[in-house]
């Protein structure tokens, strides 16, 4: 069954069941199917979108966003979800690279797009909000106008020759270490990722899933949201994260699942309402996007709900590994076991598979992996060895087959000939109550080549004592792995998804680092 038929098939069985709950209104499966039909008509008949064309979306989470994904699958187009937190020049760069034929945008981004219109002259601009028409320039056409124009046309006919291998989602990587690359995921990848998600979450049509992470990010879109609709369940959709709306959601709806990132998890746990929040139906909270402190996992499990880690990346759909809920408390530092429709190998720098307990690069194979990096055949070739995708992450398996992510290859610090994995230090120091944020980076050193430096932001109401931090590492990890210096900052730089941007941390450390005396390693 083609992905574009998911919703219509579900509507055949449960037409009145809510597919999406959004801002106080319920959109049934039948109504969502009709909306997808209208979007497909607009794309194919009114905008002239052909198979392989790119269609961009700039806006917050909305039912229109979801409808557009399925409509693109229907016409064979590729959806480019734009990160609404980027600056206009950054959007212009992505749009020039992806060359979409059309751009759908919410009214709040009118001025933003108009500011870069000279860079995207040939893109058809569609305004999603009818109320914003008065403020739109002549370059914009409203969605309402396009719907009206298509009323007298014959129903759109799906193009022939489409397949599950066709590209569907063009998602640009978060770019923590350089220029973002466009990872192209096929309809097949989205489907098999949904199957992995169904196993991870034990998804069924009885679930109500709270989506509050931005869906321009592959995690917010693919870990739970699209799999929920494939399962015939209900998505409770928030436009963006709001801590008050988070707690209100559990009062108003029988939420069974949700997905957070560590920064949001910390915000929620710091709120006084967290202690008294005991939703009966909540089966688990999933968490990912970056390395999750084991202390956080243990704290949430002790609170009464499994905090289940998920490992993956934009290029992997993203689900590659996840923790079984029953093992979350027992294995708080692990990202879990290999997904049911994935394979993982850990290899050394010569490509040889490493033994259990040894660290190696994480290679992934499966039907959920990207087709290619858009417009970059060299990067695509470099990312694969045969069918194996190189994640660039370093990890190890324990004797029970649980995966632990130790860091990034590019993050690895080589000091005096020894490999230092920043995640090892970060996880250790995250155990300390006074530490709110931490990132470990390598700085150049004339004697050792590189040294490990811990950059730390204290929790509100706490102070960090540098000597205590250094003493805490002593005896707990190898001496050569201990940070040589600790730098205290107000906060660490993060990107739109809350990931710490290591390059900016490194620049910050270089600026703040004073002359270091040589120390014995």
Notes on the protein architecture:
- The chain is α/β, with parallel strands linked by helices and 521 residues long.
- Helix content is 30%, strand content 25%.
- Mean pLDDT is 90; it is low at 515-521.
- Helix 3 (63-75) links the parallel strand 3 and strand 4 (78-81).
- Strands 2-1-11-10-12-13-14-15-16 form a nine-stranded mixed sheet, with helices on both faces. Strands 4-3-5-6-7 form a five-stranded parallel sheet. Strands 17, 18, 20, 21 and 22 form a five-stranded antiparallel sheet that branches.
- The longest helix is centred in the N-terminal third of the chain and has 18 residues, at 29-46.
- It folds into three domains: 3-8 and 28-162, Rossmann fold, CATH 3.40.50.980; 183-408, Rossmann fold (3-Layer(aba) Sandwich), CATH 3.40.50; 413-512, 2-Layer Sandwich (GMP Synthetase, Chain A, domain 3).
- Helix 1 runs antiparallel to helix 2 (29-46) and helix 2 (29-46) crosses helix 3 (63-75).
- It has 17 helices and 27 strands.
Task: Summarize this structure briefly.
With 521 residues, the protein is of the alpha/beta class. The chain is built from 17 helices and 27 strands.
Secondary structure elements and their pairing?
Layout: H1 6-13, E1 18-22, E2 25-28, H2 29-46, E3 54-58, H3 63-75, E4 78-81, H4 88-98, E5 102-105, H5 110-114, E6 124-127, E7 140-142, H6 143-149, E8 167-172, E9 182-186, H7 187-201, E10 208-211, H8 218-222, H9 225-230, E11 234-237, H10 243-252, E12 257-260, H11 262-270, H12 273-276, E13 284-287, H13 294-303, E14 307-312, E15 319-322, E16 337-338, E17 343-347, E18 360-365, E19 372-373, H14 377-383, E20 384-385, E21 388-397, E22 403-408, E23 413-415, E24 418-420, H15 422-429, E25 435-445, E26 449-458, H16 466-473, E27 485-489, H17 502-512
Parallel strand pairs: 1-11, 3-4, 3-5, 5-6, 6-7, 10-11, 10-12, 12-13, 13-14, 26-27
Antiparallel strand pairs: 1-2, 8-9, 9-19, 14-15, 15-16, 17-18, 18-21, 20-21, 21-22, 23-24, 25-26
Helix pairs in contact: 1-2, 2-3, 2-6
